[in-house]
Amino acid sequence: MGKAAQIKYRLSQNNSVIILKKLFRMIGKYKIILGLSILFASVSVILQLYVPILFGSAIDEIIAAGRVDFTSMWGYLRQILVAVAASALASWGMSLLNNRMTYRIVQDLRAQAMRHIQVLPLSYLDRHSTGDIVSRIIADTGILSDGLLLGFTQLFSGIVTLVATLIFMFSKNFWITLMVIVLTPVSFLVAKFIASRSFRMFHRQSEARGRQTALIEEMIGNQKVVRAFGYEKRASDRFAAVNEELRQCSQQAVFYSSLTNPSTRFVNNVIYAGVALIGAFLIPGGALTVGGLSVLLSYANQYMKPFNDISSVVTEMQNALACAARIFDLLEQAPETPDADGKLETVRGEVDIRNVDFSYDKSRRLIENFNLHVQPGMRVAIVGPTGCGKTTLINLLMRFYDVDSGAIDVDGRAIPTLSRHALRSSFGMVLQDTWIKQGTVRDNICFGRPDAKDAEIIRAAREAHSWEFIERLPQGLDTVLHEDSISQGQKQLLCITRVMLCLPPMLILDEATSSIDTRTELQVQEAFDKLMQGRTSFVVAHRLSTVRNASLILVMRDGKVIEQGRHEELLAKGGFYSDLYNSQFQPS
């Protein structure tokens, strides 16, 4: 084995141990269920192991032809029936408890993952596809539950079986039992050797499954675009490549892990044969009876059964550990910086941005030395070419990202000293990208104000000019919406209605009317003009006709403000803004 292979081998071993420790910490929350499960497992196994003794005693009652003590034999058989029935009942109780414990652990993991996603920085969510994250929470936890269920059942009964079997075997013959114990580590070493290698392969399988889920979600969610641009074949080819990678990873993982069971069974069969051979030599000398040998053979088989059982489910266990690694990787991602508890009692809307630097990729600056002072009630328009930093500035104002250096103050208070909820609830935000959750129209409008009355909702809908299409829906406000229930423009109108309902002290409009027809846009623009009166507003726009009335227009390029002023002033300068404006309103 080369040096690189040795390092990978040690890492896979360490990862498995670390993941198991984390799982055991979660299992510790259910100590009572765990204790009862072990108790039922002990009762079931001890009764199962007592049955061979009863059988051996019954066999020894057959002394010779015509010399059989049927009375004693039938007594032993009745005891066997009672023991088997009680063992089955205890085994059922253990399985019931293991099911409850397993699914509670998985429920906890999913709940933790969902809560953790709410506090993860947006930078993590931007770097990882939605499909991959969904795969971790849904698919990986499902596979983990299957592995845990099998593992608990085999582990608890297996440990009790090993200990109890050895005690019973020692009571029958010391030397044969000693031989079994000496040969046992061979089975352990074979299983460990194979399992340590299959873990890495199952981890690769889980990662490939996450990429496959992400691709499926991307292609199905954007099927109209795929077909419009004739991307069907390339989409199928991309899926075929990922699917082939998943097939290879799965095949290799299952192949290597499947070697465990036949390998350990071979070792265990050798041990079984050794017990039979030595026992056969001991019978003529009187050191062992035929019934005693049958008991020892039964115990040798019972003793090896846990190894065979565990090796038979090693595929599921390794797969479960690989999935657990991906789940814990998500749970252990550093959350966004701790939240302060500062509040804004009365929001005036004064915003001060001083010497701000920021970049998504730290090797390439996006915003450099940005400065801006906004008086309460001002309407600030931000214009410029695509990628100049307009939306990034909004992300910094809302503290979706923290600045690399510099400071942003709202009403004289640095935004890191305010709670994120207090800061964000001070802004009403309408984005170019719309989001509609599955629920009624009412639920979607009341997203920011769950306690709003119908009269308030209708008022907001009328002002946003969304009431016209809401009235035409089958159940009006009670119509259940799905992703494709309404058009993109109608979705944007609902997003505007949310803001109209909340009436926040400050506004952020990022291409808020980009999906609306011209006539409705003019009507919505009038409503926005009315709403923005007396409110500090930031308007990101590509259509410069919508920013003529702004108190201040910031012209950005390459992360810097290159021009600022009112519409007429910037046109008079004949600079970059003038060129942008003329390119939109003058024929080429």
List the helices and strands and how they pair.
Blueprint: H1 3-27, H2 31-60, E1 62-64, E2 67-68, H3 70-119, H4 122-127, H5 130-172, H6 174-221, H7 223-228, H8 232-258, H9 260-282, H10 290-312, H11 314-331, E3 351-358, E4 367-374, E5 379-383, H12 390-397, E6 405-410, E7 413-414, H13 420-424, E8 427-430, E9 439-440, H14 441-445, H15 454-463, H16 467-472, E10 480-481, H17 488-502, E11 506-510, H18 518-532, E12 536-540, E13 552-557, E14 560-565, H19 567-573, H20 576-585
Parallel strand pairs: 5-12, 5-13, 8-11, 11-12
Antiparallel strand pairs: 1-2, 3-4, 3-6, 6-7, 9-10, 13-14
Helix pairs in contact: 1-6, 1-11, 2-3, 2-5, 2-10, 3-5, 5-6, 5-10, 5-11, 6-8, 6-9, 6-10, 6-11, 9-10, 15-17
Task: Give an overview in words.
This protein is an alpha/beta fold. It has 2 domains: 21-331, ABC transporter transmembrane region fold; 351-585, P-loop containing nucleotide triphosphate hydrolases (Rossmann fold), CATH 3.40.50.300. It has helices at 3-27, 31-60, 70-119, 122-127, 130-172, 174-221, 223-228, 232-258, 260-282, 290-312, 314-331, 390-397, 420-424, 441-445, 454-463, 467-472, 488-502, 518-532, 567-573, 576-585, and strands at residues 62-64, 67-68, 351-358, 367-374, 379-383, 405-410, 413-414, 427-430, 439-440, 480-481, 506-510, 536-540, 552-557, 560-565. The protein has a 6-stranded mixed sheet with strand order 8-11-12-5-13-14, with helices on both faces. Strand 3 (351-358) and strand 4 (367-374) form a beta hairpin. The two termini are 70 Å apart.
